[in-house]
Design brief:
215 residues; mainly alpha; two-stranded parallel ribbon; elongated; DDE Tnp4 domain-containing protein
């Protein structure tokens, strides 16, 4: 209840959106349609991390499929005239097994430790996939033309996931106003139109509207 309440009251309701649906319905539809993008090397290059997002002392941990894009990333960074100079040491990924050659014990140990490191990160994405169907690549995989839309959607999903996790870890009780959106016929008030959803007269509407804003 609490993460959805946060999205509706704080993120969605800062402006009004035209349409035939109730505001509550439009907000829930928008939340549902937070969509995904296929996680491939093209997306990695389009992120342009060399633009003051990572530095030459940073390391990126990849899975085995991204190493083919490293040279192109380094060339793009050089063309951008970045103050940071990157090379292959900035990127780490599992050691691939060569055909008919056994891995060394040190290579096996490295892959095991590196896999353990990445599993902690992958777990965060699995939680996102379990909470947002559109971030589940087993059910849907689409591409978008502008990375900024994906970044915005992803940040919203991360905020809501973190709120959910805090609520769960600290046993925060959902208050009645957190659950209003779940009731049939509910319409939350907006800054421009104070919509009458469960109250009988204007005085009560104004009183409850002000209380909702304060909360």
């Amino acid at each position: 209840y609490i993460p959805v309440n946060y999205f509706l009251v704080v993120l969605y309701s800062n402006k009004e959106y035209p349409g035939l649906y109730k505001e509550i319905e439009k907000g829930l539809i928008l939340l549902y349609h937070i969509c995904t993008i296929r996680n491939d090397g093209t997306m990695f290059l389009n992120m342009k991390l060399y633009k003051n997002k990572i530095y030459e002392a940073d390391y990126i941990g990849f899975d085995g499929g991204y190493d083919l894009f490293i040279d192109k990333f380094i060339n793009q960074a050089d063309d951008y005239n970045s103050n940071n100079k990157f090379d292959k040491r900035n990127f780490v990924y599992p050691i691939r097994k060569e055909q008919n050659i056994k891995r060394k014990i040190t290579e096996i140990d490295y892959n095991k430790k590196f896999g353990s490191f990445r599993s902690g990160i992958e777990n965060q994405f699995s939680v996102l996939a379990s909470k947002f169907d559109r971030f589940n690549n087993n059910r849907a995989a689409i591409q978008i033309s502008d990375i900024k839309y994906y970044n915005l959607q992803f940040r919203v999903a991360c905020i809501l996931k973190n709120i959910w996790k805090i609520v769960e870890d600290y046993n925060i009780e959902a208050k009645p106003h957190h659950m209003l959106w779940y009731n049939d016929g509910f319409e939350f008030p907006t800054k421009i139109t104070k919509l009458n959803y469960i109250f009988k007269n204007e005085q009560e509407i104004n009183k409850e509207y002000n209380e909702m804003i304060d909360i």
